[in-house]
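Box 3.1 A note on notation
Throughout this textbook, protein chains are presented in two layers. The first layer is the amino acid sequence; the second is a token string describing backbone geometry. Keep the layers aligned when reading.
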Amino acid sequence: MLRLLCVLVVLLSVNKTWQFFFDKVEVGEVTPKNPAKVVNEILELNCTVFSDSGLNSSLLFWEVPFNENVSQDQVSINGDRTLLFRKNITDIEMEGNYICRRKDKDDYLESMVGFVAVVTEYEAVRNVSDFKCVLVTEKQEFRCSWKLGLYHHEDYLNVKVEISPDNEMNRVDCPQQTIKESCVWTKDDVAITSMTMIVTLSITNTEFNVSKRFIKEFHTLTISKPMPTAFINVTFQELCGCAYLTWGTIPGGVNTRTFIILMSQWNTVPLTFTVDVNNSLIVCNLVPATVYTVDVKLKPVDGYYYSNSSEAEFETCHMKPSLAPIMESSW
């Protein structure tokens, strides 16, 4: 698309007819055609006039984007018929039309020997970052995401991702038509509860013809985001300042880590607890006659992701005075 726009700009920016352009006798050419360069690469262009054109390299000059001045050290004569342009691409803004012209013609089109549309990019294909996957048990979905990084022409990227539940004996493509930085598979697409998943992310820059592959193996238990706890129960010990909490752990005998938050109107800082394997907790020093909110999240002990929160409320008991009140006169 960029190259087409560059061509149209050249053609439409002058008051000449299209027919003149196509009838124009070619006197030379610019090579290579439509080069693509990344930052810090050297751009080399050759403007060569044909032997029967009656021109030579001394009659040629270069015109670069944004009317930037072409310095003497950027051009050199290569034989009688070729003028070489050479420049280090230090910025992505250096892309655009590079035009070779002849000095013996003043007209915009007649003076043009040839041109190329140069495309620039930071890097043809960057290494991805934050490449991760999660098995969302509640929705029966296997989700993967990654960060492509900064590109000047992201539209040139072709992103493909596939997963294998059986050590790459079979591969399943992303079911979404358009892929950029994420993909979701469901239980209808693949056996998402297999022990391991091998994920292959392939990125190709179609303009630069450069590809990279990123492969990761994920253990399902490690990346599982379990369903929220099935229940939260709260009972009280003999002392009103203590509460006995129990909750449901991850089904299937999975060693569960539980993160618990207790809050009340008297807590400026929440009370937090982490419980491994066990599914009960005694909390003391609670304020009597106070409503507490308990928030419970679960994950496998060696897992990365906690479940969504489950909440419950309870009120601590009201303490009875140890002695009867004493009435005294104010006089």
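Confidence is low (pLDDT under 50) at residues 7-22. The domain at 2-121 is CATH 2.60.40.10 (Immunoglobulin-like).
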